């Protein structure tokens, strides 16, 4: 169903993204009792996989739409991704950010050419402000995870991973808004050889885990997790894809996320953010089930506040 769209998306965004490296570690293989291949999107442009989806979504717009610009609301990686993607393509980007977002993130968005509009920190305020800009400027709203072109763009990381290692039995990704895992699931279904998709999710924000159990989109009552990129929830476009193609979601404790993050920092000598560690933490949590399997893990990003490390 989505094969041609995925192929087209990958071809379209190639000039604007990095084909990121795939790393392995003998020690982490021993610790996990598996053969693990890390797709390092922490080396992607702007430091995370989200530039893929943002670039694809903007490229798919008509010339008339591009002339009016794009708008999104985000305090994190998608804000930077849309700003940089829009800058690369000569399109204006209006980025609605909560007033309490870290100054460093606001500055990063501005450096990438994004026009920052601050608002109160509630989701309702963010959505209202973005809608206002849509109406005033005629800008196209880009949702960080519940937009099919964004989802297809995010799936290109798994395409590249499977091109390098076509015999992967599982791919693990973190789960936040659902764009990455949905895109990965589509890519694995179309490019993999019976490759199954596993999500990793913090217990504190395990809406996706509960959504798969209940059959409807659940919400979170708390957002008390170190994995700040995973506090968002699934949408009506990505949830059906996740229902159809994701095998299971494994929930992990905060300390398990920190342990996995530290292992990757210390043993692989690479910087990853807490959200990225969730997928590896999920593998370690249920490693008996995946013993001796060939596993891919999407390291989703490396945008971490070095003044606020958990170890």
Automatic annotation (TrEMBL):
Cofactor(s) needed by this chain: pyridoxal 5'-phosphate
Residues in Tryptophan synthase beta chain-like PALP domain copies: 14-301
Molecular function GO terms recorded: ATP binding; D-serine ammonia-lyase activity; L-serine ammonia-lyase activity; magnesium ion binding; pyridoxal phosphate binding; serine racemase activity; threonine racemase activity
One Pfam family it belongs to: PALP
Superkingdom of source: Bacteria
Keywords, sorted A to Z: Lyase, Pyridoxal phosphate
Keyword Repeat belongs to the record: no
Keyword Signal: no
Listed Gene3D superfamilies: 3.40.50.1100
GO biological process: D-serine biosynthetic process
Residue stretches spanning the membrane: none
Listed SUPFAM superfamilies: Tryptophan synthase beta subunit-like PLP-dependent enzymes
Family: Belongs to the serine/threonine dehydratase family.
Protein name (record): Serine/threonine dehydratase
Species: Aquimarina muelleri
């Amino acid at each position: 169903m989505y094969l041609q769209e995925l192929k087209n998306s990958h071809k379209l965004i190639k000039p604007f993204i990095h084909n990121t490296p795939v790393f392995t570690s003998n020690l982490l293989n021993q610790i996990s009792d598996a053969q693990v291949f890390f797709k390092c999107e922490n080396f992607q442009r702007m430091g995370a996989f989200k530039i893929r989806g943002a670039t694809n979504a903007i490229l798919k717009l008509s010339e008339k739409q591009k002339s009016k610009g794009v708008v999104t609301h985000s305090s994190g990686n998608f804000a930077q991704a849309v700003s940089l993607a829009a800058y690369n393509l000569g399109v204006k980007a209006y980025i609605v950010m909560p007033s309490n977002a870290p100054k460093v993130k606001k500055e990063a968005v501005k450096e990438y050419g994004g026009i920052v509009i601050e608002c109160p920190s509630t989701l309702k305020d963010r959505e209202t402000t973005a809608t206002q800009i849509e109406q005033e400027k005629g800008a196209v709203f880009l949702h960080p995870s519940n937009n099919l072109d964004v989802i297809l763009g995010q799936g290109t990381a798994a395409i590249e991973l499977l091109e390098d290692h076509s015999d992967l039995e599982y791919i693990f990704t973190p789960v936040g808004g659902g764009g990455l895992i949905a895109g990965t699931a589509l890519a694995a279904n179309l490019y993999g050889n019976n490759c199954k998709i596993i999500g990793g999710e913090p217990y504190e924000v395990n809406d996706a885990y509960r959504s798969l159990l209940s059959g409807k989109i659940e919400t979170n009552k708390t957002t008390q997790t170190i994995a700040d990129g995973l506090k968002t929830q699934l949408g009506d476009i990505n949830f059906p894809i996740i229902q159809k193609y994701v095998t299971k979601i494994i929930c992990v404790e905060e300390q398990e996320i920190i342990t996995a993050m530290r292992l990757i920092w210390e043993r692989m000598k690479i910087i990853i953010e807490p959200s990225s560690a969730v997928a590896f933490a999920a593998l370690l949590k249920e490693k008996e089930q995946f013993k001796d399997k060939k596993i891919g893990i999407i390291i989703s990003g490396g945008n971490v506040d070095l003044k606020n490390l958990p170890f």
